[in-house]
Structures are given as structure tokens and as C-alpha cells.
Design goal:
The chain has helices spanning 2-10, 43-47, 54-64, 68-72, 115-124, 146-159, 169-182, 187-194, 199-205, 210-237, 240-249; strands at residues 79-80, 85-88, 91-93, 96-98, 107-110. The protein has 250 residues and is mainly α. It folds into 2 domains: 1-26, no CATH class; 49-205, Orthogonal Bundle (hpI Integrase, Chain A). A 3-stranded antiparallel β-sheet has the order 1-2-5, with no helix packed on it. A hairpin with a 4-residue loop joins strand 1 and strand 2 (85-88). Helix 3 packs parallel to helix 7 (169-182), helix 7 packs antiparallel against helix 8 (187-194) and helix 8 (187-194) crosses helix 9. The protein starts with a helix and ends with a helix. The model has no long low-confidence stretch (mean pLDDT 84).
Length: 250
């Protein structure tokens, strides 16, 4: 609502500088409808049950953290096979074509080994540079429905015992942001790749699993134990008996 009054002031429909009524509104605390969960790397079992083009759509979400609306908005002119990148310029949600969610969402993402998969798809399809990468079979030229991808995902996940309430392609975006930091990426890198406007949002997406917590805890414990042993050795060498024993050996 604040944006409405901001633009209204720009068009002379609201007194410039005057506080908008929306600025007095206070949003309540955000509540999650479902328990926060992310896929584990065992998701490969689920992917084995998916067929193209849903498989490549989901794999792109997993590997890059891109929003499914951004994947479905890709046109072939946005795919650079030589550089192995995709350029996010638009999004498609329920067949509504529009600009990305924010200016920070306009970005170039590396697709790694999937460049060859896209190359193979390009060779199979009869396309032009302005053609959507993922099209409907029954309506060529129209982007794929996001609901169709979700409908294919749930049975595959359920068959592998991995389905859970709230599982959507966006779950893989949350997983990617978490995994990217687990494999060595910084929070800033994860934020830039995700297209977030600030690190606070990236923090909301980052899920620290119990297994990851235990691994970090063990590293601290090992470091502490190693340091304690070294300190114990120094203390032993400084005891009077130890110094006398050293003089006797000399």
C-alpha cells in the first residue's frame, strides 16, 4: 500500500511529503503455515521418477536456487550455452508474464553441468530466440504451467517417502540457499545468487539442520580437545619434576 501512495505523489494525486495512512499499519508476526523443512540430498531418488520437461525444471531450481516462475519465464535468448548461464529477465506465474519480483531478481545464474542438458533440449525442439524454453505440449509457444510441475512432484516424492506438507518447487530454492552455504559459499554469495535484497531475507531461507549442527559442534569439540591436549603437554613440561628430569638427561 505504501508504494501506491508513493506513486500517487509522483503523479500529483497525493501531497508530496505527506505521510501515507499505510505507514501507520503494523504487520503482525509472520507465522509459517507448515513446519519448515527442506529436501535432503536424497532428493535424487525423487528426481528419478520425474519426466521431462518437469525434471529439468526442478533440477534447475535445485542447482541454482531460481524461483520456478523465473525458470518458466526463460526464453532461449536468455540461455548462454557457451558461458553456461541463464539470465533472469521475467517471470511467469499462472500464465501471467511480468517482470521479476524485484530489481535484485534480475541476475545471471550459472547452470554448471546442466549446460549440456539445455543444449540437448535446444537440439530437440524447434525454437527461436524468443521462444520459451519450457513450453506446453498442447499449446506450443505458451510457457509451461507451474501447477503441472507441482502435480508431478508430489506423487514422485510420496512414492519415495519424501513428501511433506508445504512441498513445492520453492522448497528447492530454500534448500539451495542452505546447501550453497554448507558447501562453502558465503551468506553474501547465497544472497546475491538468490536475488534477495538483503541478508535478513537470506537468513529466513537458511535452514540449519540437526545433522549440520552436530557436525559443527563436533568440530568445536575436536578443536577444543586438541588445544587442551597441547596445553596439557606444555603444563607437564613446566612442572618441577619435569625440569629436573630434563637437566638429568642433559
Amino acid at each position: 500500500m505504501s508504494r501506491i501512495f508513493y506513486h500517487a505523489a509522483g503523479h500529483g494525486l497525493w501531497e508530496e511529503g505527506k505521510r501515507s495512512p499505510a505507514s501507520k499499519a503494523k504487520l503482525g508476526k509472520k507465522h509459517q503455515k507448515y513446519e519448515r523443512q527442506i529436501f535432503s540430498f536424497d532428493a535424487a531418488r525423487v528426481l528419478a521418477r520425474l519426466e521431462e520437461p518437469n525434471l529439468l525444471v526442478i533440477e534447475t531450481c535445485i542447482a541454482t536456487g531460481v524461483r520456478i516462475s523465473e525458470v518458466l519465464g526463460l526464453k532461449w535468448r536468455n540461455v548462454n550455452l557457451n558461458a553456461g548461464t541463464i539470465k533472469i529477465e521475467r517471470r511467469v506465474w499462472h500464465q501471467d508474464l511480468d517482470r521479476p519480483k524485484s530489481e535484485d531478481s534480475r541476475r545471471v545464474l550459472g547452470i554448471g553441468d546442466f549446460a549440456e542438458r539445455y543444449r540437448a533440449k535446444l537440439a530437440e525442439d524447434v525454437v527461436g530466440s524468443d521462444t520459451f524454453v519450457f513450453q506446453q505440449k498442447r499449446a506450443p509457444g505458451r510457457p509451461l504451467w507451474d501447477s503441472g510441475v507441482r502435480d508431478a512432484l508430489h506423487p514422485a516424492a510420496e512414492a519415495e517417502g519424501c513428501d511433506f506438507p508445504g512441498l513445492v518447487p520453492h522448497s528447492f530454492r530454500r534448500a539451495n540457499i542452505t546447501w550453497r552455504q554448507q558447501v562453502g559459499g558465503s551468506a553474501i554469495e547465497a544472497s546475491k545468487i538468490a536475488g534477495h535484497s538483503d541478508l535478513e531475507m537470506t537468513g529466513e531461507y537458511t535452514f540449519v539442520t540437526p545433522a549440520c549442527q552436530n557436525e559443527l559442534t563436533r568440530r568445536i569439540q575436536e578443536k577444543f580437545a586438541s588445544t587442551s591436549n597441547e596445553s596439557q603437554g606444555v603444563c607437564d613440561s613446566e612442572r618441577p619434576g619435569a625440569r629436573n628430569s630434563l637437566r638429568a638427561r642433559q
